[in-house]
Amino acid sequence: YKNKTLDNRQINKRFNAPRGRIFDRDGIVLADNKFTSDITVANKCLTIAGPDSTLTRLIDWFSLDEKKVYESLLRQQKANRPRLTVIYDASMSELITVKEKSREIPLASVQSEARRRYIFGDLFAHIVGYVGEVRQSEIDLEPENPIYLSRDNIGRYGVEATFEEELRGQPGQYLYEVDSSGRAVGHKSVEWYPVLPGQDVQLTMSVDLQRSLYELMAERQGCAVAIDVNSGDLLAAVSNPGFDPNMFVSGISTLDWDRLMSNPGHPFMNRLIQGTYPPGSPYKIVTSLCALSGGSVTRSTAFKPCTGSYFYGDRNFRCWQRSGHGVVDHTAALVHSCDVFYYQAGLTLSLDSLHDTANILGLGQLTGIPLDSEVAGNIPS
């Protein structure tokens, strides 16, 4: 009987580990954790009606939109939440009200936790990514010893997803003593497991350079990248349009989700690694290397003069310099990026030799950047 009594009075409470922070190359924080408190209610509140019910009182006291509250609670209930959140990130006055009037709302309580915060909003969205609430299917992957529980966050995108194992840390456990209403009245040191915080991650990127690149992109749709050519470090990378990852931390609203999904600019597409584009004039380096190594062109080779265009087949192909470059040898053609010279140089080469040279230079291959869903592109053979 003594053991049964203890079982009724003691509960194990799990405490999530603070997620590791993400820094730029200079130690500036890009993502950290903000301590917040939510006002929650028991699941059975949805079946208890009347002017004196816990849910009705909360809605009246805080002038909440009843329809939106019930829609949100029903969604949470379908997601198998152990408790349902009525107010996310509650204000101090709201928290004090709940504490002071706890006897009038016995099924309500305050739950506090460290919640993810993205300091620069959409500035690093496609690189840093975001966290979201774990799905039941992910919880079920480890049925005997689950890594995640309901309401836990998991990296969904970008660095947050790639380095999930390092960032998440290990939760701790406390043994609590509760009264007949289930309220904690104290905790004991027995069966206690300490919280192990997640590891920090430092990127090679620079906040200042990222902001400059972001401003240069302005309202343009596309992407821009700055790389240190000596070390290969990614210094700045912007994909436009973007999104604010803070929207996903507490669960994105249906309205915001629909707005993002209907955006014709596809803000979730990371053009940095998922967009494939013709390389343009930089491909002249491939043509030069292929022609020089194959012997069809030397450094002093000159073709027909550039008059601003070159007729081939049934089409006139223009040079970027409409007035033309005149007679240029290979070196001058590379210096001035003469399109007409390279049209003629390309005709001395086979498609497969161009393909093989492009592969040697790493084109058409994954870069290996630690982000999901990178696309390799295609070099035609």
Essential attributes:
381 residues, alpha+beta, three-stranded antiparallel beta sheet, single chain, 15 helices, elongated
What report would you give on this structure?
By secondary structure, the chain is α+β, with helices and mostly antiparallel strands. The chain is about 30% helix and about 25% strand. It is built from 15 helices and 14 strands. The strands form five sheets. Strands 2, 3, 4, 5 and 10 form a five-stranded mixed beta sheet that branches. Strands 1-8-9 form a three-stranded antiparallel beta sheet. Strand 2 and strand 3 form a beta hairpin. The radius of gyration is 30 Å and the shape is elongated. It starts with a helix and ends in a 21-residue tail after the last helix. The model has no long low-confidence stretch (mean pLDDT about 90).
Summarize the structure.
This protein is of the alpha+beta class. 30% of the residues lie in helices and 23% in strands.
Principal-axis shape: elongated
Query: How big a fraction of the residues is strand?
Result: 15-25%
Low-confidence stretches: none
User: SSE order in H/E notation?
Assistant: HEEEHHEHEHEHEHHEEEHEEHHHEEHHH
**Count of helical stretches:** 15
- Termini separation comes to 80 Å
- The whole-angstrom Rg is 30 Å
Structural class: alpha+beta
Major beta sheet summary = 5 strands, mixed
What is the average per-residue confidence, as pLDDT, rounded to a whole number? 89
